[in-house]
Amino acid sequence: MDTILVVNAGSSSIKFQVYSVEGDGKLRPRFKGEMDGIGSRPRLRASGAGGALLANRVYPSEAVPDVPAAMEIAGGWLRDELRIHPIAIGHRIVHGGPEHSGPVLIDHDVVARLERFAALAPLHQLHNLAPIRSILAIFPALPQVACFDTAFHRTHAAVADHYAIPRRLYAEGVRRYGFHGLTYEYIAKTLPRIAPKIATGRVIVARLGSETSMCALSGGRSIESTMGFTALDGLPMGSRSGQLDPGVVLYLISEKGMSASKVQDYLHGQCGLKGLSGVSSDMRELEMSEDTSAKLAIDHFVYRIGLNAGMLVAALQGLDAFVFTAGIGENSASIRARVVEQLAWLGVKLDAAENTRHSRLISSPASLIPVYVVPSNEELMIARHTLALLMDGNSKNPRQESAS
Q1: pLDDT by residue (tens digit) across 257-266?
Q2: Residue from 36, 107, 149, 161 carrying the catalytic annotation
Q3: Span 194-373: which CATH code?
Q4: Record: fold of 3-148+378-403
């Protein structure tokens, strides 16, 4: 049985999923798992497609000090106990820079080029690349494919991607990239099946989770995003600031004596819902809290979504549908209801009962614009890209559309 392994590596965890390649070329989920607590309290958990528990193992911290060690343990478990020998491995890479508009086969040269973007995605890029280097060293002939969170947004017009700074900086790569592209691409390719009447129209997708952003789709293509040069931009997130006046950064450096690296850590880890509430970065905890600061954090989150929705409507010159996805978007009926209230000026009306049931369509029949809840599946998107690239031969930068 041919299989595709999908890997999403972070700083302290590796998520993985195995898909079997069926005779008709379709992909079927087989197993999924995670090695978390790397370097502190490592644990391997995995389950079958039906939810049956396959592994729940704890390791001493010294046995799994880093991502390569975690990848070796997880890979060994897949090979030795489940007899999984993938024909290729697909990886989520946050930043592809200006040169990658689609998935790419990985070699040492590609890895070296991608390392240059580490400063633009400091929480992700090097961690995304760590298992790739390990696999290249142990299994150099095994095809690996990089799938980029920035690639889907490379369809933006130049006017959307430029900042009002000297153009030589744009040539160096200082531009608005946009992120979470694998999620938005999956939604764009799913809408023709679940809502064909609006799939080719003007759609805003709100990816609401611990990492939050929004994207404007026109004809299934990204034309604008709330995120820009880095994944700090746009909406407030669990612990990231979101959109910020550059003067605040200058203030932290000049008046608070913070170094650039300290400011980076601060804006990524101490701000957002966590910083504003002083309670938690987790929306579930904030919704249960009676603390007034927790209420302010939620109010701010919803308010900024409403403001950014207006910006994206302007970019689209109208709106035909609104889509919620990701952890908060898929699971919090109360946040969805409050966001819809922010969209009332567009003629959006909620069906409270359908929203409470977490239905696919949650807008009222009287609503001028339909509102959907569509679960994201980045892993499947990566597996599709990986299989398509294998079938496409040795192309180094295939068209994005090849993984439809």
Answers
A1: 999 999 999 9
A2: 149
A3: 3.30.420.40
A4: Nucleotidyltransferase; domain 5 (3.30.420)
